[in-house]
């Protein structure tokens, strides 16, 4: 699969089997992430690979966030929400938590550190696709909660940016993609001060 094909055929695949993923393939995906562009070679990404019982780390983090976010943490509804959140990481045999650790330096722009890690995540998704694996980048409000940092031992300036759920795809999923034409979203500027078509 060439890079052009990989970009156009990759899809978010949420339904995967519990079949084990070889460590060598996980490592290949992690290494792909490290080749993302990053200003000043700060390499601001951090990866946490959760397998087997290790997935419970994320489950407990999600449960704690659910309780902390509830209007009444002691209510039966809050307990049910926490229990539901606790089981989410079990949907895939491997979950890779991806975080950013911005470097403190006068010439390092924090937003660019985030951009580098987002690029790393895209690299990882494309690598997984090239290996024939199913992957989905999951986020949402709990991802950015301070309790998530606590569970992963991250500092106050660090931030979890998402979870890559990874596994062998369940067959029979409809994987049709659709995008607007780039022409609808592009302005060509060929001369100073003028906006032109092609």
From TrEMBL:
Names of the cofactor(s): FMN
Domain of life: Bacteria
Keyword Hydrolase: no
Nitroreductase domain: residues covered: 7-167
Entry EC number(s): 1.-.-.-
Assigned keywords, A-Z: Flavoprotein, FMN, NAD, NADP, Oxidoreductase
Family the UniProt entry places it in: Belongs to the nitroreductase family.
PANTHER family membership: NAD(P)H NITROREDUCTASE YDJA-RELATED (PTHR43821)
Name of the protein in its database record: Putative NAD(P)H nitroreductase
Organism: Paenibacillus dokdonensis
